[in-house]
Amino acid sequence: MKEITKADLSAFFKSNEVKYSSTHVKLCLPIINRIYKKMVNGILFEHIKVCDNLLIDGHHRYVSSLFAGVKIGMVPSVKTSTTVEYSWGEVDFMLEEWDTAEKIKYLNQLDAKFNNLPIEKIIEMTK
Prior knowledge:
- There is one protein chain.
- α2 crosses α3 (about 60-70) and α4 crosses α5 (about 120-125).
- The radius of gyration is 15 Å and the shape is globular.
- Strands 3-2-4 form a three-stranded mixed beta sheet. Strands 1-5 form a two-stranded parallel ribbon.
- It is an alpha/beta fold.
- The model has no long low-confidence stretch (mean pLDDT about 95).
- The protein contains five helices and five strands; from the N terminus they run αβαββαββαα.
- A hairpin with a 2-residue loop joins β2 and β3 (about 55).
- Helices cover about 40% and strands about 15% of the residues.
């Protein structure tokens, strides 16, 4: 399965209008790729949180769902006085891994439990 690149993200957001704007100026490309691989293999995720046209929580899931062509659920949320809106063109998709091996293992366990699957199946999807 092809990995999503920074160039893919840049091209996508230049040529597509998306429903929600980012409230984060940086996101992690390795996290997006892990979630994307799971989504195209049918793994379900928790809903994203939104307020009006702003994405409050679930940025990596949202971007991954756009590339996977998967509809992700959403629940209303609230913004604070410090919430800042960024266009997707302003978002820096970082190449560095933000998660430790322990956190990735933990998240894979959560995904396996949430989807009632063996952990080995989740791990295989992300390779």
